[in-house]
Amino acid sequence: MNDENKEELEKKVKEEEEVKVEENVVNEENKNSEIEIDTEETVENEEKVENEETSTQESEEVKQEEATQEVSKEQEKEPEKDSEVYYDEIDYQDKEATEEVKAKTRSVLREVFDWILCFIIAYVIYLNINYFIISAPGVKQQSMYPTIMSGERVLVLRPWLAFRDYEYGDIVTFEAPIDNKYYIDSEETFPTAQYENYEGITLFLYKFMDVNKTNYIKRVIGLPGDHIVVKDGNVYRNDELLDEPYIRVKNTEIQDEKYCDVVVPEGTMYVMGDNRESSLDSRTFGCIPFERVNGHVLCRLWPLNKLGSIE
After folding, report:
1. Distance between CA atoms of residues 87 and 272, nearest Å
2. In a shared domain, residues 3 and 43
3. Are residues 154 and 275 in the same domain?
């Protein structure tokens, strides 16, 4: 083998070696680049995992905080039985319930008081109307039968509102006198009915509120100055026989002789019931003073089928 061939072989060998070296270098660079890429991906994945873990931790912490806040709120609303706050809350609720009961009690008492006050005012108004203007008493006697029967109710006008003097035949109501007692004003007058003398509060209760007071209802037979005589079952006024169509039985008996032949004193009237057989009247207790008369009977109020004037 000549020298030229050797040289050519050596060149080829060197070239081949250089090519191998370059290939090795390229392969190493590729390996390094792959390693770098892998490391970058690994780092990114690790960062993602870390981010996910941190977000998970943060969400868990937020949830724990929210749960803690809810628990604290519930504890504030419903404190433990052993805590002072719990007992303060109980005391506050008891105070609220007590105040509510007190308020209801006050409103009930106020309503009751208002009703009582209304009743008192209405009763005072009734008393004033009954005493000063009109009254509507119920009849409990048979002395005016058949004109007025027991159980009926009449309307009575007070004397100071009648604007007229008493007349014969008027039906009046008056205070019942003391039975079988009388006093004599003078030698010229005849016995007049006697009454209890009330004073102070008893007078107010008797006159204004009708306490222990009994009223009679009768018909006017004689007025001041009239000479009234009862004899032979008849009644005479000033020596004239009375025509009395309203009486049930035309027979007027004498009840007490000293009251059956009288001259009616001033300021008094002689009264009798229409049911002469069952009537305590001036034949028993004498003449009635005007100041003891409650008023004129205007009409009948009850029963409704007999509503109207009375003759």
Report:
1. 84
2. yes
3. yes
